[in-house]
Amino acid sequence: MPNLTILSLAAVAVLMLKHTAADFFFQTPYQYCNKGKYGHPGGFLHAGIHVALTPLVYLLLAPASLLLALGIAAGEFVIHYHVDWAKEQFGQRTHATPQTAVYWHALGIDQLLHGLTYLGIVAVLVWAAS
After folding, report:
1. Does the pLDDT value for residue 128 go beyond 90?
2. Domain spans of the chain?
3. CA 58 → CA 28, 43, 95, distances in Å?
4. Is the pLDDT score of 1 beyond 90?
5. How many Cα neighbours within 13 Å face the side chain of 76?
6. CA angle, 105 as apex, 100 and 111 as ends, to 5°?
């Protein structure tokens, strides 16, 4: 298997691990209780934690230029913040709870969109490295 393929798969794995840590271990009630309030610092803090952990992937792939790293950080922040906000809005409007199917559907779509964001980040880094 080509070296770049192995590094890319490892980068996706690192991003998935950091996502799990940021969403399920580092997220506090202050963050998850306020992500549905547009502009609330709790949502900004949560998205910021994700962005702060993403440079771990640069240890696997060639380090990005500062401009590219800032662009990736800004893009990830905006996408993560709005995906979470939209999920919370949807959940509130549909009265979703862990006892309803719609809650789990929304959570699944939320996690899928975050995962696709990480594939996009790795694609940009691979493109920049080649």
Report:
1. no
2. 3-129
3. 27, 25, 40
4. no
5. 28
6. 130
